[in-house]
């Protein structure tokens, strides 16, 4: 009787990480000969290398110093190069949590991840976004640097980096795949197009190309309003619509004629707030109305020349929005007071401070919208002091988190707009200086708001008003003639 045969063991061979795509598809080891490998020549096959690759340190990993993920990556889409799979893992473990640093997001934490497994266009779009995230988190040496958490400087350096070139290649591939899918009659194409508009818009925002980002935003909004009957209230499209409404708020400062959308022109009444993220979604349409009001009336009140009828109409509109904002504040504070302490996470408490800070800033923007004199802002000092205290508390909260890392890329508006507003309108020297210090101390991007770009603008604005000539004089008063009433941000 023959002895039972031993089970065959697969011989170990080291995989090629920089080989051609043809050898990877055949599951053979590439000899990595530049331009055309010898295995493809011998087999009479067309040898195709990836046009762009991420850098390969001695360890064989693209960027080795990310914090170790707490959980394993779920099965990703089939295929894909080593670089693509690496960037998808970065997207899952680092980019998504960072994008949702302020508020939980159904779109980023569920929908985009699901779509990236089913739709190649979304997969390559998120790979591009996470490659850009790595580029922003990388120092000049190409390695992840925890101290280099700025947005503007790193992205400027990234323009010459392999990560940036790889991100652009993936971005172009995603757009080509989307165009091919748009010709089909698949009913899910609408959802795919909306998702890609969101990811493409964020990609362009984080590159600093705000106008291009707003083009994607307009395209998505056009899809939403073109077939309103196709909006499934039980599907993911309402969550996507909320993202478009929020991104539209950024266009109010960075685009001519923004906000661009009127998706919430007839906004419904306030509903009970069930979560901190729900409070943010209900606040967004109110922010939209406040920014529209401010922009409309700033253009009508040069030298306080408003007529009686115009002023009456403005006061009525102002009172209507004030009542809505106040209703949101009351509902939000009632939700916080009624929530068991253990029901709110540290992230929820930080997000609650963000909303409170936004309440203060928005009320100040609205209340002063019909006043021509810049001297009125001197009576708002307690508001500006409260805003800077909340911003400092929010900033410190990241340092006490699990890894002590502050996000460098966030979708939602957080501390930057409020601190920038204080730098523009507060003329109290210590409070204004503290707001500028907070803005400069945390280089990061919140959608279209880039602190690296906006802090120098705020500093220049303060310098023109003589802020740095006053020293530490708490009682120093900037005369009306030296105050700058407006500042356009469209060139940032």
Describe what is shown at a glance:
Residues 19-49 form the Zn(2)-C6 fungal-type domain. This protein has 492 residues and is mainly alpha-helical. It contains 17 helices and 3 strands.
How would you describe the overall organization of this protein?
This protein is mostly helical and 492 residues long. It has four domains: 38 residues, Irregular (CD2-Gal4); 168 residues, no CATH class; 107 residues; 116 residues, no CATH class. It is 56% helix and 1% strand. It is built from 17 helices and three strands. The chain has a three-stranded mixed sheet. The longest helix is centred in the middle third of the chain and has 31 residues.
List the helices and strands and how they pair.
Elements: H1 21-26, H2 38-43, H3 82-99, H4 106-118, H5 120-137, H6 152-158, H7 162-182, H8 189-207, H9 210-226, H10 237-254, H11 276-298, H12 308-338, H13 346-367, H14 381-399, E1 409-410, H15 416-425, H16 429-441, E2 445-446, E3 449-450, H17 451-464
Helix pairs in contact: 3-5, 4-5, 5-6, 5-7, 5-8, 7-8, 8-9, 8-10, 9-10, 10-11, 11-12, 11-13, 12-13, 13-14, 14-16, 15-16, 15-17
Oligomer: single chain
Distance linking N and C termini = 83 Å
Averaged pLDDT, please?
A: 79
Rounded radius of gyration (Å): 26 Å
Outline the low-pLDDT stretches: 58-66, 68-72, 140-158
What's the β-strand tally?
3
The coarse silhouette is elongated
Contiguous helical run count: 17
- Biggest sheet, strands in spatial order? 1-2-3
The largest sheet is:
3 strands, mixed
Count of structural domains: 4
By secondary-structure content and strand pairing, the structural class works out as mainly alpha
Sequence of secondary-structure elements: HHHHHHHHHHHHHHEHHEEH
Approximately how much beta-strand content do the residues carry? under 5%
The helix fraction, in percent, is: 55-70%
């Amino acid at each position: 009787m023959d002895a039972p045969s031993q089970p065959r063991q697969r011989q170990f061979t080291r995989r090629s990480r920089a080989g051609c795509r043809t050898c990877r598809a055949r599951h053979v080891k590439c000899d990595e000969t530049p331009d055309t490998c010898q295995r493809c020549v011998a087999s009479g096959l067309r040898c195709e290398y990836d046009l762009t690759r991420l850098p390969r340190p001695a360890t064989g990993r693209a960027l080795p110093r990310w914090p170790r993920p707490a959980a394993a990556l779920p099965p990703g889409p089939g295929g894909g190069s080593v670089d693509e799979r690496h960037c998808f893992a970065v997207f899952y473990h680092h980019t998504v949590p960072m994008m949702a640093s302020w508020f939980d997001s159904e779109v980023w934490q569920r929908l985009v991840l699901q779509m990236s497994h089913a739709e190649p266009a979304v997969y390559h779009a998120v790979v591009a976004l996470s490659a850009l995230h790595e580029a922003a988190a990388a120092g000049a040496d190409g390695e992840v640097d925890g101290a280099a958490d700025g947005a503007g400087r790193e992205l400027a350096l990234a323009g010459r980096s392999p990560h940036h070139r790889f991100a652009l290649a993936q971005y172009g591939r995603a757009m080509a795949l989307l165009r091919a899918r748009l010709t089909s009659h698949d009913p899910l194409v609408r959802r795919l197009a909306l998702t890609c508009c969101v990811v493409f818009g964020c990609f362009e925002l984080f590159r600093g190309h705000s106008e291009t980002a707003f083009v994607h935003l307009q395209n998505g909004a056009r899809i939403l309003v073109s077939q309103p009957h196709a909006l499934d209230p039980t599907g993911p499209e309402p969550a996507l619509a909320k993202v478009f409404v929020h991104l539209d708020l950024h266009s109010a400062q960075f685009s001519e004629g923004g906000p661009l959308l009127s998706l919430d022109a007839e906004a419904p009444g306030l509903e009970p707030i069930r979560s901190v993220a729900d409070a943010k979604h209900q606040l967004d349409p109110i922010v939209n109305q406040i920014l529209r009001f401010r922009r409309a009336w700033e253009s009508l009140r040069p030298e306080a020349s408003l007529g009686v009828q115009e002023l009456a109409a403005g006061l009525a509109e102002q009172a209507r929005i004030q009542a809505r904002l106040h209703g949101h504040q009351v509902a939000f504070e009632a939700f916080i007071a009624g929530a068991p302490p253990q029901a709110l996470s540290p992230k929820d408490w930080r997000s609650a401070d963000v909303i409170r800070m936004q309440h203060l800033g928005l009320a100040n923007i609205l209340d002063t919208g019909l006043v021509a004199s810049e001297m009125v802002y001197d009576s708002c000092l307690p508001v500006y002091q409260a805003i800077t205290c909340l911003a400092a508390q929010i900033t410190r909260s990241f340092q006490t988190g699990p890894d002590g890392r502050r996000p460098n890329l966030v979708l939602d508006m957080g501390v930057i707009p409020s601190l920038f507003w204080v730098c523009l309108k507060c003329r109290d020297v210590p409070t204004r200086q503290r707001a500028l210090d907070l803005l400069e101390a945390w280089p990061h991007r919140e959608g279209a708001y880039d602190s690296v770009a906006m802090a120098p603008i705020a500093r220049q604005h303060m310098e023109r008003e003589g802020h740095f000539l006053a020293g530490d004089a708490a009682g120093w008063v900037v005369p009306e003639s030296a105050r700058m009433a407006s500042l356009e941000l469209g060139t940032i």
